[in-house]
Write a structure and sequence with these properties.
This protein has 9 helices and no strands. By secondary structure, the protein is mainly α. The radius of gyration is 20 Å and the shape is elongated.
């Protein structure tokens, strides 16, 4: 596969805190950002408001953060780190269960994570969605193709006794990227359907059609 990696990267700190005092400052700013988003929403999130809630001077905030997005990015990094650990645990639970059940659990988790990421700050989520790819987070993947080959293709190999497609690499891509993009489209266009059992049923049915095309004959 020659697919390219996401081009957009999350904004980063201007400088990283090295001493306990500076780490406490950055943590206070981050927690103030989270508090504002939880209690007042995106419209109330300004650097001035963050300074007011955190007790950190605006000038001190800008010593570490080039802009507001860099503060929000820290929140997303924590979430993605947490969810990466959850994915590892979920993978262990997939061992031994039927393919259809495994796919349902995987897609349900993608929907849950995408919902969590969007709810935190919808505008930020839209701007940096390509960088907020849980499967590729912290992974040593130089391209989407490498991500598919390292994650979805091995899953298909585990379920080789249930997979009949003659094009496993294509099927792995459609599952790993195509259906994720579809979940994103549902989130943008018909968000009220995101938690619908019918959506999950449809995603699983499409995935099974990719993996077992002989069943459609």
């Amino acid at each position: 596969m020659s697919t390219k990696p996401p081009k957009k990267q999350l904004p980063s700190l201007r400088k990283h805190p090295t001493q306990s005092r500076s780490r406490a400052l950055v943590d206070a700013v981050e927690q103030a950002c989270l508090k504002i988003l939880d209690e007042s929403g995106e419209a109330s999130l300004t650097v001035a408001h963050i300074a007011e809630i955190s007790g950190v001077a605006v000038g001190s905030i800008y010593q570490y953060f080039p802009n507001k997005d860099a503060i929000i990015a820290l929140l997303y990094e924590r979430i993605l780190d947490e969810e990466s650990a959850e994915v590892l645990e979920m993978r262990k639970k997939l061992v031994g269960i039927p393919l259809k059940s495994a796919l349902r659990d995987i897609f349900a988790n993608i929907i849950r994570v995408e919902t969590r990421l969007s709810k935190l700050n919808k505008a930020f989520h839209l701007r940096y969605h390509s960088a907020l790819h849980l499967g590729m987070w912290r992974g040593e993947y130089r391209s989407t193709g490498e991500f598919i080959e390292a994650t979805w293709l091995p899953l298909l190999h585990i379920y080789a006794h249930e997979v009949t497609t003659e094009h496993p690499a294509l099927a792995a891509y459609l599952l790993g990227q195509g259906l994720r993009s579809m979940i994103r489209s549902v989130q943008d266009d018909i968000p009220e359907q995101l938690q619908s059992p019918a959506l999950l049923d449809s995603l699983v049915a499409m995935a099974m059609a990719c993996l077992r095309p002989s069943d459609l004959d």
